[in-house]
Amino acid sequence: MNKCVLLVLTASLAFGSACKLAIEKTETASISANITEKQEATMADDSKGKEFLETFYDGMDKINGDNFDLDKVYAYIKDNSTEHAIDVLKELYDYDCEGECLAFWTLTYGAFNDPGSFISRKITPQGNNVFLVENKYEYNTNRILVEVTETKDGYKISDIKTMEE
Q: What is the Cα–Cα distance from 101 to 59, expressed in whole angstroms?
């Protein structure tokens, strides 16, 4: 009789362990699926944000061409930025200024006096719609972190962080 009870008890424990293992595997799979979904959502957001920045910089390059017009540069940046990003560019402006002044060069060549000719640009997603933007010029490379956000009017630059070399 004790052998029978022992056999039933052993079978019961084995069945319980198998059930517990199956539940843990299901929970792990569920957590993995949620993480994957979040990563894919972030990647999708980052790809749209990167597209926005590529388009933004194409526009900046056209404005900064042979017929540089500061009013057009300011208007373009304002159209594509949130108030916070505009405030950051105002704070980064270190020179005497009358009226509104934006450190627009922060977005391209940095505070370098003579960057030389433009060579290349690389935009690398950092996650959560933050991008490392590297603008390489003949005499320097400017690196900034740019955050973009989706608004009712489309994507806009929402924050800018300069990076010291």
A: 20
